[in-house]
Amino acid sequence: MAQKKRKTRELAMQVLFLWDSNAKDDLDSARQLVTDLSDDETFAGAALDMARAAWSNREVADTWVERLAPQWPSHRQPPVDRNLLRLAVWELTAGVTPPKVVLDEAIELAKQFSTENSPSFVNGVLDAVLKEHQALTGGDDKVKG
Length: 145
Prior knowledge:
Elements: H1 2-22, H2 27-37, H3 41-56, H4 58-68, H5 79-94, H6 99-113, H7 118-137
Helix pairs in contact: 1-2, 1-3, 1-5, 2-3, 3-5, 4-5, 5-6, 5-7, 6-7
């Protein structure tokens, strides 16, 4: 189960990267990407759903991250990091996944796909987002956003 969720998250991050690179959410190109990267339609559909939700929430996520890490506004972040953060912030605030899992998975994806400094950057930013989110919602890890 965890491996399926990891693959779904990985595909969603890649879709977000594609949309970010093209500055638009082209569903046809996203479908082609997930089809090219996975033979499993379950992964593809779930990844597209995650990517769409995170993409629609990207301005909120970017603003939140920029406020917590003002020295790293979204345009200065490596594109992989920017899209990992968007996905993870959405996932944290949507309450669909335990926060520890969200942080661990984002760090692992940063190790796999981004720079050597990315895992610590992603960890620090997401830890700050999580603490603030928990303070705002009364500390409930499963709060619906």
